[in-house]
Amino acid sequence: MCLAVPAKILEINGDLAKVDFSGGVMREVNIMLVDARVGDYVLVHAGYAIQVLDEKEAEETLMLWREIMEIKDAGAP
Amino acid sequence: MTEERKFRDPVLANRIAEKIRSVAPKNDTIKICHVCGTHEWIISHYGIRSLLPKNVEIIAGPGCPVCIVPAAEIDEAVNLALKGVTIACFGDVLRVPGSEISLLDAKARGADVTVVYSAMDAVRIAKGNPGKDLVFFAIGFETTAPSTAVEVIKKPPKNLSFLISHRLIPPAMEFMLGIGDLHIDAFIAPGHVSTIIGLEPYEIFPKVYRMPTIIAGFEPLDILIAIYMALKQISEHKAILENEYKRAVTWRGNIKAKALMSRTFRVVNGAWRGLGRLPDSALKLMDDFIEYDAREKYGVKIERGRDILPGCQCHLVIIGKIKPTECPLFMKACTPQKPIGSCMVSSEGTCRIWARNMLPYFAH
User: Fold this and answer.
1) Nearest CA of chain B to the CA of A51: how many Å?
2) CB of B2 less than 8 A from some CB of A
3) Which helix (H) or strand (E) segment is B165 a member of?
4) How many Cβ atoms sit within 10 Å of the Cβ of residue B124?
5) How sure is the predictor about B364, in pLDDT bands with cuts at 50, 70 and 90?
């Protein structure tokens, strides 16, 4: 119930969007709660996208973690 | 490395665990409280507690939205179901005990109880069956309430109404701080609730209660980093609100969702299973939508129920006062196959999570 799963928006049709949860799992979700575009990653909870994920922040978070933890090869795979 | 793998990088995880051990106070017992069923699942599934020093304890607060639905509200749904109204609910709710029976028991007695994935599904059923009286049992925290608001505001067909059991997380966190003998040292706040409400409602915890508060995401590294951030604040005698989950949570949260919620609901006092009534912790439909309020439409309002069955310790597990393994019924009389308390019913209940992740131990 608190679970929300990231998914990529493939198509938008009014208030609904076809999303890919990766691994070939597709579903139609309601996007009325967010301003999302095709290609965006959204968090989906109980059939509704509740937030658009910020990819830049995700990258920066990873960099910051490595910096805090004093791991020198920041950005390494 | 894929994006997901980057957030589960074992090298980084070990490094964070080392940092946690170096920053954690050496003698004092530290209690960090999270308030989210999914956080508990991640912590248990990935064995995060085993990476922490012995004096650092992570406890689970009332963060399972299914577990905290009071028996009286299950009784309302059961009552409607037995009167011939179709109940649409999330799957986890089916087996949650009411004072006497659950919705699943009602279904076994011939009531029409149907599982839906979302509020949208309930609207579809109502539209496709205009002769059917349908009630959507709307449970969940701030993460779920906006989806109910979306459907209510669109004025769905009149044969659909809503039994609102939504609850709010910050009042429950404040309640936790009032429990004298819990002695919480820091909060890890729930990431998905926070995507909606933002950071602002948590400001009270560092400012008024001097409580370090970290909003955390849902990868194992998110949780480890949040624990590190909390311990660092504790060791430096600071109390700050920090956002570890910046990729999904902003200061103001989801403005659209919050606006929809405030047009649809008003905040009222609400009962939590085993905890009593918490001030300003529940939602009720605004008068503009009273025709969609199942309690008003069917005249069903049950004030009191039997939340806790004899022997069950869910009221103590829900606030992290005891561990599931300290309940005398855990994995004896109360199992995932035959749950007694609500904490063993839901996949986000602490007992159910512990049972599932400890199953190999019970098998021997």
Assistant:
1) 6
2) no
3) strand B160-166
4) 14
5) very low
**Chain B interface, best mutation among A2, A29, A50, by max B CB count within 10 A:** A2
Looking at residue A18, its amino acid is K
Q: Rounded distance, CA B185 to CA B320, Å?
A: 13
pLDDT of residue B150: 97
From chain A, the residues in CB contact with B190 under 8 A are: 2
> Is the CB of residue B7 less than 8 Å away from at least one CB of chain A?
yes
pTM of the model: 0.94
The ipTM value here is 0.87
Q: Which tokens is B153 given?
A: 């505001």
Convert the pLDDT of each residue in B236-282 to its tens digit. Answer: 999 999 999 999 999 999 999 999 999 999 999 999 999 999 999 99
Are B348 and A1 a contacting pair, CB within 8 Å? yes
CB contact under 8 A, A1 and B260: no
* pLDDT of A77 over the 50 cut: no
Distance, CA of B346 to CA of B336 (rounded, Å): 9
Cβ contacts below 8 Å, chain A against chain B, sum to 121
> Residue B142 corresponds to which tokens in the numbers above?
């701030």
